[in-house]
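For reproducibility, we list the full input for the S-adenosyl-L-homocysteine complex.
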Amino acid sequence: MSALAEIIRERIAASGSISVADYMELALAHPEHGYYRKQDPLGARGDFITAPEISQIFGELIGIWLAQVWMQMGGGPFSLVELGPGRGTLMGDLLRATKKIPEFHECMTIHMVETSPTLAHAQYQRLRYEHPRIEWLDRVEELPDSPTLLVANEFFDALPIKQFIMTDDGVRERRVAWDEAAQAFTFVEGPAGLQLAKSGQSIPPGTVMEQCPAARSIMRLLADRLQQCGGAALVIDYGYLGDAHHDTLQALCRHQFHPVLRDPGEADLTAHVDFSTLMGIARDAGLQVGPLLNQGQFLVRMGAEMRAEMLLKHAQGPQRDLIVTGLQRLVSPQAMGELFKVMAVASRHDIELPGFAL
Ligand code: SAH
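The corresponding predicted structure, in tokenized form, follows.
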């Protein structure tokens, strides 16, 4: 048994079952053995690959989006924030694509919000010569009070979720226990929990429901900050609109699905993002909220195909294949194009969110 599995097992032995959120938090962020703490999980040799690692076009178009919004805001000093920047690839592509926009780089201070020291170091290595003002923060709470342009790709899916399950006698929390006979972690039903938001709703027994308290509190904080200081945000992730009535917890290990409770700390654990809740929080804070777009739609509207054609003019041999297959993976409905969604919010209602107008 791994050191982290042993720690979790002991905790359960001492004080009983733990919530799915606590399990996820320990598996991903335990200070010594957590998944994001000890290794670089991204890329071909890692456990999963993300859009910025697939094609430079992704980060470039996000850079164009942010710069267009900044110009509509009238320019001026701002904080460019990325949540969970991975290897710093998106930020590097974004900076390169916006270099020629007058004053954009001069006006920005970059804030990278990253909990993993390993990844923060990789970001530093990648970006230290790209911009004179880059600061690293552990937590969203530490962001400065300044006009903000923010991007978060595959960040919200890494935040710990709670799960609940409908039973014949009401909703109970789904928790994680240790099965001594099987020598494995297992799901158990906890005491009655969760008050259902909509009373009178008939949810079939066996339905799993999810809640992400961390996503809610981060979104609330960001929405208030944007409302007070001005700015806009782009959130990209796999997720859905509508009720959070599905079990979306999943583990990936070396590009393969993995049993979610096996090998904590060795596999990546994520849950799909409940965009309805995040958009509702932004709306309640008074922000402009664009319609939720598919990643494919968004990138094509931002000019992904034209950008690929430009890159092809200067590419040869295998490079050409990479450009073409990279674009396809990002936009095609069979790959990431439909599963991944893009949410945009802005403090001002008169700003046109590029790519979001009908
Ligand atoms: N955005 C990158 C990486 C996605 S992986 C890309 O698209 O390639 C998730 C990232 O979020 C990692 O950098 C991870 O270390 C970071 N992360 C996870 N939980 C976090 C938290 N609570 N606070 C800050 N960063 C977090």
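The chain has 13 helices and 17 strands. The mean pLDDT is 94. Both points were considered when choosing residues for closer inspection.
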